[in-house]
Design a protein that fits this description.
The complex is a heterodimer of chains A (295) and B (219). Chain A is of the alpha+beta class and 295 residues long. Chain A folds into 2 domains: 2-53 and 161-291, no CATH class; 56-156, Alpha-Beta Plaits. Chain A contains 10 helices and 4 strands; from the N terminus they run H-H-E-H-E-H-H-E-H-E-H-H-H-H. Chain A has helices spanning 2-17, 19-55, 69-82, 93-103, 108-113, 135-145, 156-199, 201-209, 214-254, 269-291, and strands spanning 58-63, 85-91, 122-127, 150-155. A 4-stranded antiparallel beta sheet of chain A has the order 2-3-1-4. Chain A is elongated. Chain B is 35% helix and 27% strand. Chain B contains 7 helices and 10 strands. In chain B, strand 7 (158-162), helix 6 and strand 8 (189-193) form a beta-alpha-beta unit. Chain B is globular and about 50 Å long. Classes of the chains: A alpha+beta (295), B alpha/beta (219). The A-B interface holds A 2-3, 6, 17, 202-203, 205-214, 216-217 and B 49, 51, 71, 74-79, 81, 83, 89, 91, 93, 102-103, 105-108, 110, 154.
């Protein structure tokens, strides 16, 4: 406990004495952790939104203008026989227009001014969530597409899969970038601690001559690195939270109908704790590497 | 207390700082080490502080061979040795009190003990009233007194001093030597390296003269 208090006091004194360089190191650490945090935040929210979209994945069956009740019964029989469908509903042309004017109010007047309703009648088909990734859904779509009275079949799952792949690639690229920045931050912390080591070489020499334990000689430098990393991580978390709070509502407003406010959330407490402890660990590593110079 | 057996230290090929040195210093002795620059005085002190190891021979302090110590044993050994240098080696950014308590502090001693010991040694060197001053606010003699106080705070069995009066005028030099005499009177072994013959004459203690790495007088 006495040793820890000694390390903290010495590290605090040193950080304050070289506060310019310390802020620079903490800032670099904060930037790298901010980038990492941004990718984690964007990744977790994108995953959550995609999960919701996946759960709500629908097969849309668009009918021709000449589709008869017999055609519709054939479609409904095919859907029921597949065992993949949890629910389906028939959307008339009038209902399709009403939905369109609700979702795109700016275009409502133009749509109503057309001499005829251009939107086709359709079926909204809800796939059982547990079967959403089933290849049978694609086969069902192909069978339905071939039925008379059907003009087109759209299945959300296909573009969702593409989107999930894109998000995965972006997340990997982000983590690689963040990893590189984390290494840069570790090197910066190490350089700052080395400067401290150089400035305190006389103290180190005296400590060596009086027989101070190696842990006592190196401890303050390791603590200094840890504090720099911790400071950077706390700074990064605060910036991340501020940015999230500032952008959440405008983002939801921009993406009405696509993203709802409930789908967006800040990082979980476990990830925040991991980010902060990770920052401290990076700083600690920088401190340990620098302190190896004190023998 | 200190025994050197055929100790040699060579820095460059064929150039000896110490050459086949043999000496014995008893417990509680006060010994001057003198000689011209390059005679090997500082080298011997560095070997005794275990900052370096000899190329040949054995250096034994308190029955233990310094060359056979591992890193942990060297640390433990150094805690029994006080040292004073010509350039004081005080930390300029710390007060007198902090410079003195630095030693017990890095050895992990409780604060109450650090404080008690600091007051004792500061009183003993007559600087209790300057404990909050910084080294650069003190005269050379006062700075060396602080260095002596720091050397004593851990109650060392052996005090090594390398030209401790080299930067001081003759009166201040004698003051510092009187401190060493007092330290010695308490039973501590004192080894002082100096080339100041006049000071040696005034203090009048056993003197070992070195030249070209060998003892030429006083053995």
């Amino acid at each position: 406990m006495r040793a820890l208090s000694y390390f903290l006091e010495e590290a605090g004194r040193s950080l304050w004495r070289r506060r310019g360089a310390s802020l620079l190191a903490a800032g670099t650490s904060a930037v790298s952790l901010l980038v990492l945090g941004l990718f984690l935040l964007a990744g977790s929210n994108a995953s959550r939104i995609l999960e919701r979209w996946s759960a709500a994945a629908e097969l849309s069956i668009y009918l021709t203008d000449g589709a008869t009740p017999e055609h519709r019964r054939a479609i409904e029989r095919e859907l029921a026989a597949s065992g993949l469908v949890s629910a389906h509903s028939y959307v008339t042309q009038a209902e399709a227009l009403r939905r369109f004017t609700t979702q795109f109010p700016d275009l409502a007047a133009s749509a109503r001014s057309l001499p005829t309703n251009p939107l086709p009648a359709s079926y909204d088909v809800r796939i059982r969530p547990e079967r959403a990734r089933d290849a049978q859904v694609d086969l069902l779509a192909n069978r339905v597409r071939a039925l008379p009275g059907v003009s087109d079949v759209r299945y959300d799952r296909r573009w969702l899969d593409r989107l999930i792949r894109v998000v995965g690639v972006a997340r990997t690229a982000g983590l690689v970038l963040a990893g590189l920045l984390v290494i840069a931050s570790c090197v910066t912390v190490m350089s700052v601690v080395r400067l401290t080591l150089f400035a305190r070489r006389q103290e180190i020499e005296i400590m060596q001559l009086v027989g101070a334990p190696l842990a006592y000689i190196r401890g303050p430098f390791v603590m200094e690195g840890t504090l720099l990393g911790l400071l950077g991580a706390v700074l990064a978390t605060m910036l991340l939270w501020t940015a999230f709070a500032a952008w959440r509502d405008p983002l939801v407003a921009q993406a009405t109908g696509v993203v709802d406010a409930g789908a967006l959330a800040f990082l979980s407490p476990a990830i925040v704790a991991g980010l902060i402890l990770g920052g401290a660990a990076i700083g600690c590593l920088g401190g340990v590497l620098a302190a190896r110079g004190a023998r | 207390m200190i025994e050197a057996k055929n100790v040699s230290k060579m820095y460059a090929r064929g150039v000896y700082a110490l050459h086949d040195l043999n000496l014995t210093i008893g417990k509680g002795e006060f010994v001057f080490l003198t000689g011209p620059s390059g005679a090997g005085k500082s080298t011997l002190l560095r070997l005794l502080l275990r900052q370096e190891a000899p190329n040949a021979g054995q250096l034994i302090v308190n029955g233990r061979s310094l060359s056979k110590m591992n890193a942990g044993q060297v640390q433990a050994y150094r805690r029994t040795v006080g040292f004073v240098f010509q350039d004081f080696k005080l930390i300029p950014t710390r007060t007198v009190y902090e410079n003195i308590t630095f030693v017990p502090r890095v050895l992990g001693q409780p604060i109450a003990i650090q404080r008690r010991k600091a007051f004792q040694v500061l009183k003993w060197v007559g600087l209790q009233h300057r404990m909050n001053a910084f080294p650069l606010e003190l005269s050379g003699g006062e700075q060396q007194r602080v260095a002596v106080a720091r050397a004593l705070i851990n109650d060392p069995a052996l005090v090594l001093a390398d030209e401790p009066t080299g930067n001081l005028d003759p009166d201040l030099a004698l003051d510092i030597m009187n401190l060493f005499r007092d330290i010695n009177a308490r039973g501590t072994t004192v080894l002082v390296a100096t080339h100041d013959r006049e000071l040696i004459r005034r203090v009048a203690r056993r003197t070992l003269a070195l030249d070209q790495g060998r003892i030429v007088e006083g053995q």
